[in-house]
Specification:
transmembrane helix, 73% helix, flat, 6 helices, membrane, 173 residues, mainly alpha, transmembrane
């Protein structure tokens, strides 16, 4: 049985990708050389996984854009019913991207943990960057679902943070 293209197959890909990225932590204590090899593969796989998931997201949102929300006539195509997966697929893809990038940071720099402030700035930047990628891909805000709220909040917080840092830097110099 083949998985249908759509939000559910997208979620399955994201979950399997995240489970695969946990392999070095499980295998590492048992077989250190194999864990090192898996980490090397992850450095290539994580960006590839992000590209594939973003590409699938664009395909899903493009299909959502083509189907009417309400029937135009009695002979119209079957109307699309919005379910919770439709509203969350962009947010789920972003969470996958954030977890993958955080994991990539840990693979590259495994000895230290990052302070909360660094992770907060990392989160703001990744939300805004992911939103800008959606805009570049031509995905309208109305198809972003719950991610749009996160994007709007993060964009405003990042702008305010940059203004504050600029003013403080000007005062100190």
């Amino acid at each position: 049985m083949r998985l249908r293209d759509g939000p559910h197959s997208q979620v399955a890909l994201l979950v399997s990708s995240m489970l695969a990225s946990l392999l070095p932590g499980v295998i590492g204590p048992l077989l250190p050389r194999l864990a090192l090899f898996i980490k090397a593969i992850l450095i290539a796989w994580i960006p590839t996984s992000l590209y594939i998931s973003f590409w699938l997201l664009c395909r899903i949102l493009e299909e959502m854009r083509k189907k009417p929300l309400l029937p135009l006539s009695c002979h119209a195509v079957e109307p699309r019913i919005l379910d919770s997966t439709d509203h969350c697929i962009t947010l789920i893809t972003y969470v996958h991207a954030w977890l993958s990038l955080a994991h990539l940071l840990h693979v590259i720099h495994p000895t230290g943990s990052f302070p909360l402030a660094v992770m907060m700035v990392f989160t703001l930047i990744t939300v805004v960057a992911f939103g800008k990628c959606l805009l570049i891909a031509g995905i309208e805000h109305k198809y972003w679902g719950h991610f749009f709220d996160l994007y709007t909040l993060s964009d405003r917080l990042l702008c305010i943070s940059i203004r504050v840092i600029t003013k403080v830097t000007a005062l100190l110099s």
